[in-house]
Batch of 2 targets.
Target 1
Amino acid sequence: MTKETPIHSFHIPVMGLAFTVDSPIKIAKYGISSVVSIVDDILVEKMNSFYSNKYNLPFKAYSTKDPDARASRITSYLNNMDAIVKQKFHDFKIALSEKKEELENYIDMLPDISDVKKNLVKLVEENASKEVLQKWIQDNLKPGSIDVNIMTKLDNARYHKNEALPSHYNDAHTALKGFAESELNSSIVLSAGMNPRLYSYFEQFEDFYPTTDNQLKKKIILKVSDYRSAIIQGMFFAKKGLWVSEYRIESGLNCGGHAFATEGLLLGPILDSFTTNKEDLINRTFETYKAALEAKGKHVPASPLDIEITVQGGVGTSEEHQFLLDNYDVNSVGWGSPFLLVPEATTVDNNTLQVLEKAKEEDLYLSNISPLGVPFNSVKGVSNDAYKATKIQNDKIGSPCPKKFLALNRDEDGNSICTASQKYQNAEIEKLKEENLSNDAYQKKFDKITEKSCLCIGLANAGLIDKEIESKDTKSGVLVCPGPNIAYFDKKVSLKKMVQHIYGKTNDLTTANRPNMFVKELEMYVKYFNEKVQDFIDNPDKKQEKYLTKFYKNINEGISYYQEIFKESQFVSNFSNLKDKLATL
């Protein structure tokens, strides 16, 4: 299978519900790939209506009474987005061949090592004719991929006329169907862990199987935290005749959104394990994959399809970017939070943008606001904080919970309920009143109940506010979930400026006090470990003791790994203070 060299060595991961919901429309023409969340079909339909009107495309609103409405909304938006990207890319290619300024601007955004850049520069220097330039552009440029993301755990059952629908109507299942039935030739990113029933549903869609020329119209990307998780999930798919085309490694703590901490495994050692074991991963999954395809009577490739290893979480300088590419041979590096300050690439309302510009280290923290019960990266000062505080003061606690994507708990009647909802929080507070606690003890438990926030609305509102789409939900304000890395970027910048920063053509975007990404992650893990130790001291538990012992072992092995690798690395000058910082932890 011929491997195409990407134009760029970075991608923009999914961020929240709204922040990258239309990123492909903005940046795909430049060859930059990005990931769209398709969890919230209501937001998706509103964005579809907005862009359909803007670009004069067909639009249909689907009734909530229709069991297939969720999948249909997602398919419709993705198809319209695909049409918009193709048209914008077509217009962009014409502009490149006709407008010198447009071509020069595009060349300035490309990495120096790019074959595309080298060839374009050569054509310009040779004063190539418009026809020659146009043909080369037509033959060699391609848009960035319109990839989509679903959190595998957000797979609530759905009901029609009070009757539970079959599992393929569950939230994650219908999101998958919406993507699978779209015209996109791209990838679906699966995050938040394994969901066997959802993974099995992939078998229903022909686009995930190889064609006779060994192509996959739709690819599977797994977001993983370690090699063990990758091999388990990769083999699960392979047994069903499904190929995982990319393993997307993300830092457990130094990332945006939900933080799924590892057992003390640090990013560097995790990447090293993939570098060491990649061939074994390919060979093991391919043998199983071939057998499954043969059993299904499908076309069987003679050799393994491509597998890419990518990484994201906390990267913020060109030196770190290049180190990841060179030292671990990754195919692409994800840049997330810094792009929240690039309006040309992401969707962030003005108020939230100002909060992000001003955010310092002390403003960014791991919160417990997520109804999933997983630590959630948060920033102080967002508009939802003030809205929620006012509601609590007025004794109006909790969210109406209109979307129910995170209604993963059960009430006394066995119905799905979200811990951020009015119903749940009011019930818990009534129970709390009966405990006859001291004022301090009562307030502590009260705060724990009411700290849960409605992510379904808060993470979607930036898109509605930015596009001036009327909705009663926007009164509750915006939640945003940047990684700690945003503290070291303090101003709104253009797309060109950020891309040039990634490729080392400018170095004035990050603040002087920014720590190395590996050191920052290590500091976060040490803090996390100390908090867990304190919990253990307060409430001793054999299982927790075993967990902490393993955590301690892994983190110390990680420190030793870093001390060794940076001692030998050709980039050691860029990490000169690393060992000193490690020694203090």
Target 2
Amino acid sequence: MKKNLIISLLGVLFTIFFVETNAQCTITADAYPTTVCVGDPVTLTSAGACGYLMYNDFNNGTPGAGWVATTGVDFSNPCNPTADGTIYLWMGSAVPIPRTLTTIDFNVDGACEISFDMKYAIQSQSSPCEGIDEYNEGVSLQYSVNAGGTWVDIAYFQPDGVILTTNPGTSGTCISSPYITPFTSWDTYTFPVPLAAQTPSTRFRWIQLDYSSQSNDHWGLDNIEIVCPSNVQISWDHGPTVFDPPTVYPTGDTTYVVTILDTVSGQWATDSVFIDVKPIPTSDFTVESPICTDELSTIEYTGTGSSASTFNWLFSGGTIVSGSGPGPYELQWPVGGLMYISLEVTDSGCTSPVTYDSVLVYTAPNVDFLADVQDGCEPLDVQFTDNSFPAGSIWDWSFGDGNTSADQNPFHTYSNAGLYDVTLIVQTAEGCDDTLTMSNYIEVYPSPVANISADPTETTIVSPEIDFSSTSTNVNTWYWEFGDGTNSSDPPVVTHEYTTDGLFTVWLYVESANGCRDSAYVNVEILAEPYFYNIITPNGDGRNDTYTVENGERLHNQLTVFNRWGKKIFEAIDYDNSWDGGDFADGTYYVIYLYGNELENEYHGTVTIIRGM
């Protein structure tokens, strides 16, 4: 009940602190608000006076000398004691309507205050402690300046806990369960005496004009006092500084002391109010910038807020990868541009100025490329095309075979068979890069190696068969073209018989299982049948000077010449048409001519030497 609550005529509530009283001076220090941030304004107020005009605590069990109370008033503390355990006045179930307590006339010609303790019983409790519930059943504080002829409201205590300037007379409107309001506990209420009531003869009363029944709507009063100022001086101080209220701007926790002094009697009193000053946090932070869209920016808080602070971050378009509260944060921006960050920090109700910063985000390339062919036979020529976006300024190709290129769209030849990974690293002018590796992107098939041989490479039309063979590798199919309009698909050895003489180019085309091809060729010649001349005239005129076998010089042959008696007079292997008859006499001689690869063909004839022609 010693907690004081100063209330103006408009019903504004101020927090009241413990009052230290010296002699008959009292002073109460107030502040609004009592918890502030650095630099915020605080309004200091005080209420006090020196000398009591009146004090009535009902401890003698009567309304007070000359005071008038409605019959049936109770002084037995029927509804629990006050905070100090002393006697109070109770308007209980024995008191009819109107329930009133009226003072005698007082000289309140000056800035006086009237103060009292009051309590409403709680609704639905047992009588005589049954509480006020309807809005028109509350208690009014009034004054009269004409000996009670007319009364004027100072305040009306509406049962819902609201103090009004007058009774609205609202019946039927009730407070709600559980029926606990600010008025259902003892508390102290203080009002300045209105200017119109400041006369040498003013009386006061507390009046309840309506109730549900005499057994309902009970209430009580205690510790009524009127305090009026004399020749007083009120001053505020904090340390050596004297303040002139109402406004101060504390920068740290501060106790402000107010002193009231009666300059005539020397009586004085003090009170103090403590202002809890909270520091304003800062919202500084650092940002990693610039970054690429595929990178993370680290944002770190460097301000002074505590871990209990509230952090209001704004990341324009950013995706939070990690971080909460003060951070640090890892953020990524999916698109390029200038991105903004702001932070506001609130700590113990104090809010920092907003800090702004930005992150410059460059667009990282999205690497993509294409090859005009992805598989083929060795050697394989490949044209690569860079399709990355946005365009880069530096390219680093790795073809997988140990070769590289810095061209944007390189041409590369794969010389050896195999599977090759292709990697492209693209870097933009801003330094952003991306890498793409295509695994087993290029497949180079081994090509077959064609070769061809002929046995023999020359023969006659008499023996026109030639054996062709190949030791080609990695071959799935063979295709022969014999140069005479015929062909064959037999692998890898084939015999061909020519039907005409001549020079023929024979081609062999081979193909692997993957469609890779190679070719080789060989020239063969089919010689015409030898033609034998049977007369020589070795006279040096350049005609028929030697024994000539036409078409025979290019054949493997053996020439043997006999005289008429069967004696061998000349023999030559691979005869070259150079025999001129030697020293032998004119006449007819016998000739045996063997020819062919195995000398399997044989000719018998004669040759006649005639020198005189």
